[in-house]
């Protein structure tokens, strides 16, 4: 790092003029992100995944465990279980911050927002040496952070932006420092990244493959140093990952306990869905992304673009690049390929709650941009002018995307109005319940986060009376399932429009259904168009 500073006068150190200009640009980018977080922040920046992270952090702080509420109303005799879907890293970070007196739900937003503001500087530091000049590094930063993926996900209390910051920091330590200490720090950061998101297994494998490449491409006298760096990186990773794997084996009987229902989406569809999400993040043009992913000409175009880029690198581009740039391009290519493949294969094997979308691809677009701009540097002047126009077009699409507020609000009509209605209508019924009461709601994650109660998620409802005519269970089926699985405990249920099958117009329920509930011992506390509150006293 000392090489970027110039002495001036007696003991005075300043950045060179071009470096100072670059950091002013980075500051401007961060301010744009700050403005986006301020003006486009959602009313409730959390999701069901957020509820799991926050609850585990609260439990660690209050009870010394990492237990989580089971998803769904079964089992009814167990309030909390070990979570086998999400690793322990993020709840540990939230719990550490909450030790300062900050609630984990606030800490999750603070981590996400701070990561978004720091990411431009981290990307510039990590990629500057690889691309070779400030202008290209700044272009990668702008294209990466002012893109749909990060802008859409930055305001939420989730792991995504924090995970990307950790990945970029680890990559920067490897590409910039090239010392045993740098690799050791990279190993720790990579281990933390894996403890935060399972998908960062791709980072660990990419680092291992890069170490092999680094050894192979080094001269014989340098290989001893490469081995020392690699061992330091392994030690860094082991310090974080080994305790986590041992805990997994102790608690779950497996190093990787991640399990979900089998996926209902095939490999080909997931590949095309991934391409659509990736192209949307790259171009900020939904129509362009849909055309590329779901048409033969579009797929052929993207395939040929990747083929010719690889062919050009193989035939002549590799020799034109300097060592630092080759290292950066190699790592970026390996990590982008592994990460993308892992997302596609995982979604093909497991049934997530959503298809592949921007949240799953923006982790990899900065590395794609690094490859693209590194290639662009070594093309002919005519081709460079052409791609400069392409980059300008991308900037225009990004500006249009960022200005349009509709891209950053819920796509479900009246979502936030329904959310606020659920909280106001159900707070007294659900949030004030005694600890031994079994709670269930179709907005469970809302009450878990806001009220710190153990509310269970009711999902798959079909509110049509007279028996479901399509997928889903009837209200009586759900109620009887709860009643039969919760023994000798009082139960409270809250149903509100806007989530998990309860639509506007489904409430209030009919008098005949109320009578049927009463026969089973349930008390209808409230039955309006805004809420259905039920209680089973015991």
Note the topology.
Layout: E1 6-7, E2 13-14, H1 17-39, H2 48-62, E3 67-68, E4 81-82, H3 89-98, H4 104-131, H5 134-145, H6 148-153, H7 160-177, H8 180-196, H9 201-217, H10 223-252, H11 267-283, H12 286-294, H13 296-320, H14 323-349, H15 358-361, H16 365-377, H17 381-403, H18 415-431, E5 438-441, H19 444-451, E6 455-457, H20 475-485, E7 491-495, H21 511-519, E8 523-527, E9 532-536
Parallel strand pairs: 5-6, 5-7
Antiparallel strand pairs: 1-2, 3-4, 7-9, 8-9
Structure description:
- By secondary structure, the chain is mainly α.
- The chain is built from 21 helices and 9 strands.
- It has helices at residues 17-39, 48-62, 89-98, 104-131, 134-145, 148-153, 160-177, 180-196, 201-217, 223-252, 267-283, 286-294, 296-320, 323-349, 358-361, 365-377, 381-403, 415-431, 444-451, 475-485, 511-519; strands spanning 6-7, 13-14, 67-68, 81-82, 438-441, 455-457, 491-495, 523-527, 532-536.
- The strands form 3 sheets. A 5-stranded mixed beta sheet has the order 6-5-7-9-8, with helices on both faces.
- Strand 5, helix 19 and strand 6 form a beta-alpha-beta unit.
- Helix 1 runs parallel beside helix 5, helix 2 (48-62) crosses helix 3 and helix 5 runs antiparallel to helix 16.
- It is globular, with a radius of gyration of 26 Å.
- Residues 1-15 have low confidence and may be disordered.
